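Input set for joint prediction.
Command: fold jointly, output tokens.
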Amino acid sequence: MNNGKAVVLVVEDSPVIRMGAVDLVMSAGYEALEAGDADEAIRILESRNDVDLVFTDVQMPGTMDGIKLSHYIRDRWPPVRLIVASGATILEESSLPGGSRFFSKPYDDHTIIDAMAHLLSSDCDWTAAKQATLIR
Amino acid sequence: MLKHPTAHFEAASTLAVVVSSNEPLLFLSDDQKVIAASASFCRAFEIDPATIPGKRLSELGNGEWAMPKLASLLKATASGSAHIEAYEIDLKRPNQKTRQLVVNARTLDDGDIDHIRLLLAVTDVTDVRAEARLKDDLVRDKAILLQEVQHRVANSLQIIASVLMQSARRVQSEEARGHLHNAHHRVMSIAALQKQLSTSKGGDVELRAYFTQLCQSLGASMIADPDRLSIEVTADNSAVEADVSVSLGLIVTELVINALKHAFPGERTGTIVIDYQSSGNDWTLSVTDNGIGMSAGSDAPKAGLGTGIVEALAKNLRGEILLSNAGPGTAITISHQEGDRLRTDLSTAA
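tokens >
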């Protein structure tokens, strides 16, 4: 959270899609940060402690894809909410950390905004997901 | 006085059967001397039949058959303690590629229990295995390629959708924004089909699942209050070819956009129902709303791009468009009846 605004980190290697996602995040009233791959995303997460949600692509160059990244984030920064999008239609939701949401590309902007609002709202019981992860 | 064992002669018919065996076959004594070898064995493993008589298995060719494992397995088979079934060995010869063999050995059961003899069948599976591996590789490559293509298509559609939405958020004119949103809906309609195709096994698209996905996508972006407006799909189990489904999907997209925009002004609540029924080659697609109904005459809205798209696609599918009053609301039905066309053809002929 920064100045009362939720902070969303967009991780996407395609510049045009990343631009669109950043635009979407800002239009929803959140602060947007951007990274072109998982390594850059981790550097950003290490450098600041106000990121509330990470919205990541799956297939990306670099050492980690979006699925590995989402697990890494859940392990290291458990409170960060996760939304994963991929061009692959069928993705095992079980392959993602508990409590994270998956959408296939092309995603609908409104659907993503709704999912972000839900994950960031206080009535979303993400702490249960976090606890489940900690217990595991 | 030395005791000479009586010479044992094999029945000519047994030898003839061995020699003429289609599958490479060796007939061995219990001490692994070659009694006979099939012509197919000599051909397959490049052994001159003239060199065979009196040789031991281990002495065949350049000694490549002297495989300790094979010898011990044959010994065990001769003693009755083991049975070689589909045992795999590698045949190594100098200056030649290793061949993968499958061997089967058993004792000859001809009632002569004093003379144990072995039948050793040898199949060269190198080429078959290589072919199977190649086929597996090809199937896997094809699946990976297809996945890659689907992934690229999804990404390309995402780029188009992202650009359209960014433009829509930037333009000042309400009308221009409307057009950009419509363009976005059309892209998402094609994307829904793409998703449906990537999960279907053959090239056919199941319409109910496709329309449901389509309407979820349209509803998510166009319906602000799901308690006020909803979209239902009541299609039967029909599945159609991919290119027919593109047309049907685009028709549904245009009609649903139109109904959401015009049928429920103000805070009016309502439902849009999409139905598709087919029987043989005949089919009927309908989009029905329980809104305010179509205005006629000079009040009727000017036909836009959406109407043009629906008319062109319906014509292409050889469907007839029918507009009717659903009381309340409007029903737009597109139907294709082969019987009707036949009758029309006959009447024109007469």
